[in-house]
## 1
Amino acid sequence: MWGLNMVRVFPADELSGLLTVLQKSGYQVIGPKVEDAAIVLGGVSDIADLPKGWVDEQDGGHYRLKSSKKAGYFDFTHGSHTWKRYLFPPKEKLWTATKSGQKISIEEHRDAPKYAFLGVRACELTAMEIQDEVLMKGDYVSESYTERREQAFIIALNCRRAGGTCFCVSQGAGPKAKGGFDLALTELKDRFLVEAGTDRGEKVLAQLKTVEATKADIKAADKAVQKAADGMGRKMPAKAASILEKNLESPRWDEIAKRCLDCANCTFVCPTCFCSTTTDETSLDGATAERFRQWDSCFTLDYSYIHGGAIRNTGGERYRQWITHKLTHWHEQFGTSGCVGCGRCITWCPVGIDITAEVNAFRKGK
């Protein structure tokens, strides 16, 4: 529930005013748009860039985008892109080494654009908090991630529609944003309910043409979010962590491997996966060398390679590593599940392997 003194309302076309305020404040606005018959994330300079009038259809290994006259600006659920690609880029230069005579100089590369993220779902906010534990805390801190994260302006979006593979309710990660945002929007018929979550969010909100939310507005927003909660396409079985712990040696892992292509799609579309590797690129004359950090996956054979060979040689072992780390061992490392229930791993698996169905199969002893 919202408090009436904290919430305002603005007409749908005032989204353009929000973009203007953010751009004048020096932010590069990133939001959803339609490209190649899918929802992607990219630069948004005008509300015309937003995917108004589009909805998506998602199931295991299935994604279709459809136009709808009744759809608003954000009635799709999400595409394959996650906000991770802007906070923890797929490929990031770390440093450049230059040789001049006998002298070698190293220049660290720092690239931290000032982003404003428009339309961040509750599950994605939870995913950001999970990645914060990995990349901002502990003994090994990513300075570039930390800088991007701390200066990013977050505009959350409370869902009013669930997708066919969504199960954020099972994971306690949605569909309403509970915190971690500067502003939070709920799209109604011809207007947006907006809540400020930080001081800088209040400063932006003060520059928009808004009115105080009425009890009817609050009720309509609650009803919209509840509709999304009731419409989840999937459900993760309770106590998934203990279910998997009891089945580490099950022959079912090899049965899953017969379907799994080891393509790593599930890890690349996941908003919490953080596996990476480093690569070096050297000029032909040996005068310069560059080091990059880029995404990797526990599904690749080389990822577990140490002296003497790979630790996880079979597809079944690699799938077990991914799902048990995500749902079981993550609790031990970070005190929470590594899955937020966005359902991308189900939608974008070429053969439609369903993480919720597999846990349920283990639960039933199949």
Note: Residues 55 and 76 are 4 Å apart (CA to CA).
## 2
Amino acid sequence: MSTSDSSIKGKFNEVVGNVKQGIGEAVGNDRLANEGAAEQVKGHAQQAWGSVKESVSDAADAGHARAEEAKHDARDSATSTAADAKRRVEDSVRN
């Protein structure tokens, strides 16, 4: 599973927001503290969206792998059946 751009941007916004909030609270600047809190919320939302995208991508990859395995199994079954039929015909011809 790879980390999506949304998750990375979200973590960045969360950290920046946390710093802004801390500075704003330290110097008594409510506007800066509120901006920081809002940026943290934005960061959390971006990270959540990144997690959703990663989960969907992982599920699609797993589905693709299962489909490829099913196609492989079908080809093996078809060739095995054909080989069995060939052996039976050859056995019938010999007998």
Note: Residues 30-94 form the longest helix (65 residues).
